[in-house]
């Protein structure tokens, strides 16, 4: 568990250093996330790592624990909205319309492109 | 110690607001559970409302609250990195569907950002709102980091992200049924991309294949949207 947490923090640290040092546009934790996926793929080449072994590893356990608590972790930042209530009220209509239109447009675009390209490339099978 | 002195003491330690944050979350979660976990009754939103009300009631400023709550907030960073584990675990699915996934991901992510920003801009929304709105389709921790990197207001993003999650979760099933889309991989991928974790939870409730593809879309979009926004936003906002 401690080793798993260390791996996550170490990747975040490398991500933050890379994001700031190289002035990358993406946030540090996202760089850390991408690096972790790459590292796991490389690791898998010299030592087979199936889904079960990964889930039972220190890293898998630490990740599962943190991700189970993920909704709680948004709360402190979300409470910061008390500082913006005026702006939210003022822009309420613009935001409501933007969110509804954008959510429907995103669902339609994504499902449409997915089905179209699947048909074009003849990809078969779902899982 | 008088009650007033006691209150002053509690305000100076992180303990009180940290405990309050967990308590509010547990109450909100119990309410959501009692409501059968319908997407419209969102536990994160209820917890935020409870704590916001408590701050108002006690006349506490946000900085004082955050001094305690920052210990929970800090874990968002490692938790974001931890998303790499389920993404990696589903890589076999990506390899088998690489072209539909890649195309839907790039176009879906672009539509999610551009449509929201352009509609709000047409209503005359200020720059701060447009920045906060741009990453609204990705998971809250990453979305807030994107907004912060652009000099926007992360709390606004957090609320917009949750609202988007709820909207997508409520809209997806009637919309896809009306369109006659029966491919649950495609349906799941769309709702995960548009509405992150809340959409993914909804997808799992409808169909297991939809759930897996929704989780995949959420993870991949958490990587693609932060990479696309810095290039797209100056062009959209002008």
Description of the structure:
Chain A has eight helices and no strands. By secondary structure, chain A is an all-alpha fold. Chain A starts with a helix and ends in a 6-residue tail after the last helix. Chain B folds into two domains: 72 residues, no CATH class; 156 residues, no CATH class. Chain B is an all-alpha fold. Chain B is globular and about 65 Å long. Chain B contains 13 helices and no strands. At the A-B interface, helix 1, helix 2, helix 3, helix 4 and helix 5 of A face helix 2, helix 3, helix 4, helix 5 and helix 6 of B.
Arithmetic mean pLDDT of chain A: 90
* Count of domains of chain A: 2
Q: Helix content range of the residues of chain B, please?
A: over 70%
Write the H/E string of chain B, N to C: HHHHHHHHHHHHH
Instruction: Domain count of chain B, please report it.
Output: 2
State the major sheet of chain B: none
Shape of chain A: extended
Structural class of chain A: mainly alpha
- Please indicate the percent range of residues of chain B in DSSP E strands (runs of 2 or more): under 5%
Give helix and strand order of chain A, one letter per element, not per position: HHHHHHHH
Query: How helical, in percent, are the residues of chain A?
Result: over 70%
Low-pLDDT residue spans of chain B: none
What's the short story on this structure?
With 127 residues, chain A is mainly α.
Keywords:
heterodimer, A: 127 residues, mainly alpha, 2 domains, 8 helices, extended, B: 238 residues, 84% helix, 0% strand
Would you spell out the secondary-structure blueprint of this structure?
The complex is a heterodimer of chains A (127) and B (238).
Chain A: H1 2-21, H2 28-46, H3 51-56, H4 58-68, H5 70-73, H6 75-79, H7 85-90, H8 92-121
Helix pairs in contact in A: 1-2, 1-4
Chain B: H1 3-12, H2 14-34, H3 43-58, H4 62-74, H5 76-82, H6 84-89, H7 91-96, H8 98-122, H9 127-133, H10 140-149, H11 154-179, H12 184-206, H13 208-237
């Amino acid at each position: 568990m401690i080793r798993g947490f260390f791996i996550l923090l170490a990747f975040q640290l490398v991500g933050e250093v890379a994001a700031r040092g190289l002035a990358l546009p993406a946030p540090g934790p996202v760089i850390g996330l991408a690096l972790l996926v790459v590292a796991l793929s490389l690791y898998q080449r010299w030592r087979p790592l199936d889904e079960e072994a990964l889930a039972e590893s220190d890293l898998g356990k630490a990740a599962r624990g943190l991700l189970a608590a993920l909704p709680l972790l948004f709360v402190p930042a979300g409470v910061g909205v008390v500082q913006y209530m005026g702006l939210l009220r003022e822009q309420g209509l613009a935001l409501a319309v933007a969110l509804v239109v954008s959510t429907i447009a995103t669902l339609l675009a994504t499902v449409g492109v997915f089905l179209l390209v699947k048909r074009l490339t003849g990809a078969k099978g779902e899982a | 110690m008088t009650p007033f002195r006691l209150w002053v003491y509690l305000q100076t330690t992180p303990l009180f607001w940290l405990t309050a944050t967990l308590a509010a979350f547990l109450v909100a979660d119990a309410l959501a559970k009692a409501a059968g976990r319908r997407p419209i009754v969102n536990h994160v939103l209820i917890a935020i409302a409870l704590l916001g009300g408590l701050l108002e009631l006690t006349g506490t400023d946000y900085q004082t609250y955050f001094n305690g709550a920052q210990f929970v907030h800090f874990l968002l960073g490692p938790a974001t990195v931890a998303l790499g584990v389920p993404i990696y675990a589903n890589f076999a699915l990506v390899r088998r569907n690489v072209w539909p996934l890649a195309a839907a991901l790039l176009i879906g992510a672009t539509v999610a950002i551009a449509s929201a920003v352009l509609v709000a801009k047409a209503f005359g929304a200020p720059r701060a709102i447009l920045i906060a709105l741009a990453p609204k389709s990705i998971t809250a921790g990453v979305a807030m980091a994107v907004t912060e990197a652009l000099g926007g207001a992360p709390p606004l993003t957090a609320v917009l992200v949750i609202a988007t999650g709820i909207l997508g979760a409520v809209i997806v099933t009637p919309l896809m049924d009306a369109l006659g889309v029966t491919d649950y991989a495609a349906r799941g991928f769309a709702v995960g991309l548009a509405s992150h974790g809340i959409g993914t939870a909804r997808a799992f409730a409808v169909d297991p294949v939809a759930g897996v593809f929704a989780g995949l879309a959420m993870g991949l979009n958490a990587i693609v949207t932060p990479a696309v926004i810095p290039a797209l936003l100056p062009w959209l906002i002008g």
